Amino acid sequence: MRNLWLGLVCIILFACSSGNNNTPVAKSASKKASPKEVKVNGEMVYKKHCMECHQENGEGVPNIYPTLQNAEWVGADKDHLIEIIINGMTKEIVVNGIAYEDEMPKADYLTNKEISAVLTYIRKNFAKINDPISEVDVARTRIRIKSKK
């Protein structure tokens, strides 16, 4: 009989503790960041998607992939930069007097947040331009691109 009571007490205690929202597991699950709160690191996006061609320092590969360092087009029209990421680039580009013909693949799979973060990172670190590119800029450009098709 004593074992039966002990077993029932254990079951009751276990049931009460598993439903308790103050447990560490429940607290961490309830504090998940909402999608709006998630921050995207532009440098990490660059390293994952851009660095192989444009190199860690943004200098590119001579005669193959253009430099991003002090290239005037990096600091120019925001919409044009966003379009390059979304659509890629297949035409020749001249950077600092050197023509580049290699194709840049499109990265339209990146989120608006990732595109805004990576382009802001590139502009700030390689063109010394502190004017950020926002998610709204990217969204507006995506809409404009889709409406042209």
Describe this structure in words.
The chain is mainly alpha-helical and 149 residues long. It has a single domain, classed as Orthogonal Bundle (Cytochrome Bc1 Complex, Chain D, domain 2). Helices cover 50% and strands 4% of the residues. The chain is built from seven helices and two strands, in the order H-H-H-H-H-E-E-H-H. A two-stranded antiparallel sheet has the order 1-2. Helix 3 crosses helix 6 (112-126). The model is unreliable at 1-31 (pLDDT under 50).
Q: Layout of SSEs?
A:
Blueprint: H1 2-18, H2 24-30, H3 42-49, H4 51-54, H5 78-87, E1 93-95, E2 98-100, H6 112-126, H7 135-148
Antiparallel strand pairs: 1-2
Put simply, the count of helices is: 7
Tell me how many strands there are.
Answer: 2
CATH-level-2 architecture: Orthogonal Bundle
CATH fold-level name: Cytochrome Bc1 Complex, Chain D, domain 2
What is the alpha-carbon Rg in Å? 25 Å
What is the CATH class designation?
Mainly Alpha
Instruction: Give the helix level as a range of percent.
Output: 40-55%
CATH superfamily: Cytochrome c-like domain
The whole-number mean of residue pLDDT values reads: 81
What structural category arises from helix and sheet content? mainly alpha
> Beta-strand percentage?
under 5%
Spatial order of the strands in the main sheet? 1-2
Total domain count: 1
Tertiary shape: globular
